[in-house]
Amino acid sequence: xxxxxxxxxxxxxxxxxxxxxxxxxxxxxxxxxxxxxxxxxxxxxxxxxxxxxxxxxxxxxxxxxxxxxxxxxxxxxxxxxxxxxxxxxxxxxxxxxxxxxxxxxxxxxxxxxxxxxxxxxxxxxxxxxx
Length: 130
What we know:
This protein has 130 residues and is mainly α. The chain has one domain (2-69, 106-129). It has helices at residues 2-9, 13-25, 31-35, 49-65, 106-121, 123-129, and strands at 88-90, 95-97. It has a two-stranded antiparallel ribbon with strand order 1-2. The protein is elongated. The relative contact order is 0.17.
């Protein structure tokens, strides 16, 4: 949360994006933590409810990536950097690229997809800072 506060203070959208992405990926964070004020100093504010709602929604979308046979978002890209745009698919256990047929690293997919969702849902907030 520190990077979010500093990003807002110094108009650094990449710090805010990184902070939101960390919150979405960190499985140990609770809604209580997200809504409580930071310990010090008084000028730092907790996240507002709209932001918390977006972060919770993004976290739920990311959790779907780990569920076998769940539908995969169309905008996921191969983690091996192939130029294929035919998408990804589940086999019985893993996720594969339709173009290069290589197995995908699910942690990398989750991080990449989180970045995409954070950029989408917080676009207005991040664009104002640029």
